[in-house]
Amino acid sequence: MFDSLFSRLAVACALILALAAPSRAETVLRVGGRLTPKTMDIQKNGYLFARLGVTEGLVDVDENVHLTPSLAESWTVSPDHLTWTFKLRQGVRFHDGAPLTAAVARDCLLRLRSVGSLLKPVPLAAIEAPDASTLTIATTRPFAPLAAYLARGEAALFAPSSLDAAGEMIKPVSTGHFAVDTWKIKAEVALTANPAHWSGVQSKVDRVVYKGIPDSMTRVNMLRAGELDIAQTLPADMARSAAATPGIELHTREVARTRMLGFNLGRAPLNDLRVRKALSLAIDRQAIVDHLLDGFGQPAAGLFPPDFHWADAKIGVTPHDPAGAMALLDASGWRDTDGDGVRDRNGAPLTLKLVTYPERAELPLIAEAIQAQLKAVGMDARLTVLPLDAAQQMRADGDFDAYLIGRGLLFVPDPDENLMLDYHSETTGKESLGAFHWSDARVDACLTRASAEFDPARRKALYDEVQETIMRELPVAFLNYYVNVDLTGPGIRGYRMHPLEQRFRLEAVETAR
């Protein structure tokens, strides 16, 4: 007991000394991103603190998109696929010096089950801690992607001191390379390096200050002025221009995210497959990449970018075929009978409400390009650009025909979450950000089978079938894949980006200031 208390005090003292170090001796890394800390409760919104290196969970994801051990050094699954056993890494301590135990891990996941949404799709039966270093998770049916769900930021483990007496999270006290010092909700968070990280790897900076700056140009201008060291998630042309400044370096990484149009199949005219196909053929995907994305990225084929394992190699990019689009519209009865340039049928014009949002700066520009391309085949797309929350609400209300979105695909590093949420009939009329009022019994069956399938090849075949059905039935149209574009300022070395946007790895970044 004395040794445990001594170790805990030593860790706490080290953190106090780090906090008290003279500011003139500190190395501070200043990061500006599009996202803001909306809450300190990581189980309600945990992605940012995981990316910043504050929190860690049982499972991590490497740069090859493979699940890897983190706070669990290993895990096994029982022969009946109903019980997962995680062996915790020995000697891990939280930022406050408290030890990581299986009981603490169990309590974290039980709270997540209660207050968060991440585990809602998981058929949990029990979470238990049979001894100090063993955590078991039982499911009511085989559920292959369980470990992948535990890799998401909301599943991070935290010390009991993170919570107040009412069980509300004050701030996340976890195990990562950085500990939370101060914060302003929806503005910024300041971090101090954890000198006792279980890996033995020491951060190369003493402090990190992350600022949520929604406007891209503001982030670039602050980098140019020396107020930021890293500016993240920038429009390609803006970043390329800034990178011409001596000392500023451009970084790119293809990520698991796609720009796509979701269609409202609950009303005419896009409840007609021929009209959806015509719309997709009318879009010049390559021109959008070349002229609006400054050549960063590539036209989309299926849902997943081709460099990711889950992509279906049999799916090709939809060609730009205005003549084919017009033939389909003719066949479906949409013709320009009055010569005004807009097709009509039974006296009604072929008009579409195209909705998007400006928080991704390129989306309104892409929407304008699509509007022009559709006009060339006689479709009148009327553009509505609203702040993200309002745009999402308009979509949820069904007050749209096409919704242009940048969709993250593998925040849970497995297809289950995205495909179940966006394409299963139980969700496509509710919280889905993909298909809207679309259902396909075969897709539902494949998704259900895939979640219970532990053989990787058979799972891949099921997900390929789902993707091929989506391409055939077109409840959505995929446009292009994301390449994230970041900038670093003078004297910054060691910055690298993650294909799932999982972590910034700021502990490896050096600054010469």
Overall description:
- The protein is of the alpha+beta class.
- Helices cover 29% and strands 22% of the residues.
- The protein has helices at residues 2-20, 47-51, 102-115, 146-149, 216-224, 236-242, 273-282, 285-292, 322-331, 362-375, 388-396, 415-423, 441-451, 456-473; strands spanning 28-33, 59-61, 67-69, 72-77, 83-88, 124-131, 134-139, 178-184, 188-193, 207-212, 230-231, 249-263, 344-345, 348-349, 351-356, 380-385, 402-408, 476-488, 492-493, 510-511.
- A 10-stranded mixed beta sheet has the order 8-9-10-1-11-18-12-17-15-16, with helices on both faces. A 4-stranded antiparallel beta sheet has the order 4-5-7-6, covered by helices on one side. Strands 2-3 form a two-stranded antiparallel ribbon.
- Strand 8 (178-184) and strand 9 (188-193) form a beta hairpin.
- Helix 13 runs antiparallel to helix 14.
- The longest helix is centred in the N-terminal third of the chain and has 19 residues, at 2-20.
- It is globular, with a radius of gyration of 25 Å.
